[in-house]
Amino acid sequence: MVFVTTFVASLLTGGLGVYLGARYVLDSDDYVNAAITGLIGALVLVVGGALFGWVPVLGQLLLFVVYVALIGRRYPGDWIDAAKIAAIAWGTVLIVLVILAAAGVVTLEVVGVPETSGLVPAVVSSPRGVTGRFR
To answer: Cα separations (Å) of 21 from 87, 114, 120?
Structure first.
């Protein structure tokens, strides 16, 4: 289910992010190209994430390089322009997904943050107030 949610969220927000990045970096006003790039990017990120996302740092770096290469292939400019567009798109998608997670539409797993409730200590309260103990 996480893959489907990731794909849909990436598809809907990815086109917007690429559009904003291309508009800022290249002054491109072609939303159709951005939407197609978002669609291909969503497919690449879901399939690539399933294949290589489990590799701690290298997997995410590889996915980013592939995403930059995809944007570089679909838009004019060099690798630096493509990396700028990808960074703006990633930031836009991250902001939108955090807002959607706060609204309860998606979980933070879609953003790439796994469930961390067992890792973050929580202060428990007692009848006399906060005890300072961790659960």
So the answer is: 8, 27, 35
Question: In which element (H, E) is residue 12 found?
Answer: helix 2-26
Classify 135 as helix, strand or coil: coil
Alpha-carbon 100 to chain mean position: 12
Per-residue pLDDT reduced to its tens digit, 21-80: 999 999 988 989 998 998 888 888 778 878 887 788 888 888 889 989 999 999 998 999
Residue of 40, 42, 19 lying closest to 110 (CA atoms) = 42
Global pTM?
A: 0.70
Residues 106 and 93 sit within 8 Å (Cβ to Cβ): no
Q: Which two tokens stand for residue 41?
A: 């990017």
Calpha distance 15→36 (Å, rounded) = 7
Compute the distance between CA of residue 120 and CA of residue 61 in angstroms, rounded to an integer: 26
